[in-house]
Write a structure and sequence with these properties.
Length: about 625
């Protein structure tokens, strides 16, 4: 619809700017510049376009907003407060303080209304691509011609720093290929980073770069005052259905400050006299802090009311959808709740010691093939190693635009290309959207390329599964460049991350069983290229505890603890030692963190005292 400027718009924008100055100054820490520069774009987006209900922040069909330049989070917290989320003025005053709801960067699961954890630059950009893939997929699966039940947009603010990061480039390239017309990015082109003017390091033509990626590129040359141009650009972006859109928004960082346009307002609070002159310039009382005029609250209350009406209409539509499409309705509601279907565990493969030796990457493929028909929420992919990772279930369709002839948006397999970091961050977005459990494959050594995304999976509690094959020196002829040495130790040290290294078929099934039930914990399943025998005493029931005795003796002189491909070697060694009179127990410890969560009594029964305990893994 045509843009109509309201009398309150300028007051609201300047309220955001003065609040940003006060909030950062109150903490004596933070980034006031970007919030002050982006205030007009934020105001237009949140009052004219964003469909969200602050009283029901998890409404499934809400538009998603991602602040990729998470250091500017004072802006996002102010917008959440104004719209009426569970974020009070006292919370704004507690910005960057211990245990506050307004930490130094936005944190998923911590602050009401935050969709993904951002701060490490570029991650939020890739998360937004994941959210857009999820939206496109869920819409393709569940929408009907008479019921467009999922039709939300993904909006993302980003900055120069994000666009310098490789992870954003990886995600942007894939988003262009996938023709994600539901993704709208506002690029804050303020030419400033911590080191100063971006001319020192970042002089590429961003518009041309994104055109090459296959994006629609729009621009607003005056993002500080031209509200109509901002509104028109977002309106134009929504019309494009076959390309993601980036709007290059030229802003002055720290708009209104004595230091506007310089890196002095990037990462440091404004001085007290500067804040006072900003307020005076914008018609505010220079001595009043944390001030919001009533007409501004009223304006945002109307926007929130609109969002509530949108949700109510959607809920009514969902009821009608359920009457006409009961099966799809039941499945969609189950997926939104994050519940798994009854009896899915019965599909897990079970093995006997007499079964043939099989590489655990092949055992993983067998699990995925068995489970996928029962778990439509499984959405897989690989970073250009499908034939090695064995992550594609037979007859599964690729997630691709139909125009490519390569698949459809209903497809459940994503061709990530050689983009491990992008894949990891996109999977975080897929998980954050809801209704999808993503898994992605690469060699274990190259999960390190995506370590930044893995860490944020763990911090955010995203249920993401990495299928990490070729997990030891047993990978073959590729040599030391592909051999993971420190990798397992690195990821085992990450809090809230399950690192699995299964030794046989039952342990592989157990790894997936726990990973699929762990709704707030990501998993890495480390898998072998070489064949592994099926072990005595290995059962799914044993392995789900993270550690168990695979070879038991009484009066032992030694206990060997091992994982993955070395467990069978340890069992063989125990037999040789026994011939020499050295009684040896063998413990398989496929997941240290899961084992550590067991009762003290159980752990002591497995790693019992009385004899030396020796760890054996082929990582050096």
């Amino acid at each position: 619809m045509p843009f109509t400027q309201q009398a309150v718009d300028e007051t609201a924008i300047n309220t955001i700017r003065t609040l940003a100055a006060d909030v950062v100054a109150g903490a004596n820490s933070g980034h006031p510049g970007a919030p002050m520069g982006l205030a007009p774009a934020a105001h237009i987006l949140w009052t004219r376009f964003l469909n969200a209900n602050p009283k029901s922040s998890k409404w499934y069909n809400r538009d998603r907003f991602v602040l990729s330049n998470g250091h500017a989070c004072a802006l996002q917290y102010i917008m959440l407060h104004l719209l009426g989320y569970k974020l009070s003025m006292d919370d704004l005053k507690a910005f960057r303080q211990v245990d506050s709801l307004t930490p130094g960067h936005p944190e998923y699961h911590h602050t009401d209304g935050i969709e993904v954890t951002t701060g490490p630059l570029g991650q939020g950009f890739a998360n937004a691509v994941g959210l857009a893939i999820a939206q496109a997929h869920m819409a393709a699966v569940y929408n009907k011609p008479d019921f467009p039940i999922i039709d939300n947009y993904i909006y993302m603010f980003t900055g120069d720093g994000c666009l310098m990061e490789g992870v954003a480039s990886e995600a942007a390239s894939l988003a262009g290929h996938l023709q994600l017309g539901n993704l709208i990015c506002v690029y804050d082109d303020n030419h400033i980073s911590i080191d100063g003017d971006t001319a020192v390091a970042f002089t590429e033509n961003v518009e041309q770069r994104f055109l090459a990626y296959g994006w629609q590129v729009l621009h607003v040359d005056d993002g500080d005052t031209n509200l109509e141009a901002i509104s028109n650009a977002i309106e134009e972006a929504k019309k494009e259905k076959n390309k993601p859109t980036i709007i290059r928004l030229r802003t002055i960082i720290g708009y209104g400050s004595k230091q506007q346009g310089t890196h002095g307002v990037h990462g440091s609070p404004l001085k007290a006299d500067d804040i006072e002159q900003v307020k005076a310039k914008f018609g505010f009382d220079p001595k009043k802090k944390y001030f919001v005029p009533e007409e501004v609250y009223a304006t945002y209350a109307k926007a929130a009311e609109w969002g509530a009406k949108m949700e109510a209409a959607w809920e009514e539509g969902l009821v009608e959808y359920g009457k006409k499409y009961p099966n799809e309705h039941a499945e969609l509601c189950r997926r939104i709740k994050g519940e798994l279907p009854e009896g899915w565990e019965q599909k897990l493969p079970v093995y006997k010691p007499t079964d043939s030796a099989v590489a655990s990457r092949k055992l993983s493929e067998t699990v995925l093939t068995a489970l996928t028909p029962s778990l439509p929420e499984l959405m897989g992919g690989s970073a250009d190693l499908t034939g090695s990772n064995l992550t594609k279930v037979p007859k599964s369709v690729d997630f691709q635009p139909e125009s490519t002839g390569l698949g459809t948006y209903k497809g459940i397999y994503i061709r990530y290309g050689v983009r491990e970091h992008g894949m990891g961050a996109i999977m975080n977005g897929l998980a954050a959207y809801g209704g999808i459990i993503p898994f992605g494959g690469t060699f274990l050594n190259f999960v390190s390329y995506g370590a930044g995304a893995v860490r944020l999976s763990a911090l955010s509690g995203h249920q993401v599964i990495w299928v990490a094959t070729h997990d030891s020196i047993g990978l073959g002829e590729d040599g030391p460049t592909h051999q993971p040495i420190e990798t397992a130790a690195h990821f085992r040290a990450v809090p809230n991350l399950h690192f699995w290294r299964p030794a046989d078929g039952n342990e592989t099934s157990a790894a997936y069983l726990v990973a699929l039930k762990a709704r707030t914990t990501p998993s890495i399943i480390s898998l072998s290229r070489q064949n592994l025998p099926q072990l005595e005493n290995s059962t799914i029931e044993h392995a789900v505890k993270g550690g168990y005795v695979v070879h038991e003796v009484e009066g032992e002189a030694l206990t060997i603890v091992s994982t993955g491909s070395e467990v069978s070697i340890a069992v063989e060694a125990a037999g040789i030692l026994a011939e020499g009179g050295i009684k040896t127990r063998v413990v398989s410890l496929p997941c240290w963190r899961v084992f550590d969560s067991q009762s003290e009594e159980y752990k002591l029964s497995i790693l019992r005292s009385g004899a030396p305990i020796l760890s054996v893994e082929a990582y050096a």
